[in-house]
Write a structure and sequence with these properties.
two-stranded antiparallel sheet; 2% strand
């Protein structure tokens, strides 16, 4: 299967996100049903469930964010038309090199590249093996807020659920994957399950809306 994906329309973007979310929701719902029915293996299922919730939450946010950037790239807009975050995304390697050097020649190259980019189009290929966005295996609320900054979307979607993301999901997930013995509460798992399901659905809608209303453009919702 080819690793490069072209997403040219909002409809294609939405279809990809719906398909990716469907199989994830199916697995999460199936495990939830097992947790509710199997009293004997409940402790094991709760531990497995927290790990699975976190994996699908992180996986969907990462893939959906990359699909969105891939869609924007296929619109073939110039960097000067797009929000500054796309220029920053393109210049990530240069920023890192500049941060490690105190040479003015290195700093000058950064400024020259920035000036040149403003005359070019953002047309980066979306390669699933080399994605634009990473969660760094740590989908904390702070990391998720940074992803929103990276793709240029303003939303408090993760801020309002920061406590559940960082404590009820991420902290417990870390204990499970590192082999620590900890008791998980069934009701807490069910609440976390609902929050994660709602969050991924809301995130899908957020990205489709941003694409449909051209929120990637400078100067307002419609780039006007």
């Amino acid at each position: 299967m080819a690793s490069n994906i072209k997403i040219k329309t909002v409809e294609q973007l939405e279809e990809l996100l719906v398909q990716d979310l469907a199989w994830r929701k199916k697995e999460m719902i199936s495990l939830k049903i097992l947790v509710e029915k199997d009293k004997v293996n409940e402790p094991i299922l709760l531990r497995a469930g927290i790990a699975l919730l976190c994996a699908h939450f992180e996986g969907f946010i990462k893939r959906a964010s990359n699909c969105y950037v891939g869609y924007v790239s296929q619109q073939k807009k110039s960097y000067s038309e797009l929000k500054e975050n796309f220029t920053a995304l393109k210049m990530e390697k240069e920023f890192k090199s500049c941060a490690k050097s105190d040479k003015h020649s290195v700093h000058k190259k950064l400024l020259i590249l920035h000036k040149e980019l403003l005359t070019k189009r953002f047309m980066e290929k979306y390669d699933e093996n080399n994605p634009f966005i990473s969660t760094h295996s740590n989908p904390s609320s702070a990391e998720l807020e940074e992803i929103l900054e990276t793709i240029g979307i303003e939303s408090d979607i993760f801020e309002t659920k920061a406590t559940y993301i960082d404590s009820s999901l991420l902290e417990k997930r870390h204990k499970v994957v590192h082999g620590e013995r900890s008791d998980l509460d069934k009701q807490d798992f069910l609440i976390t399950f609902k929050i994660i399901i709602d969050l991924v659905e809301e995130y899908k809608t957020l990205l489709v809306d941003a694409a449909d209303n051209k929120k990637y453009m400078r100067g307002g919702v419609h780039g006007e």
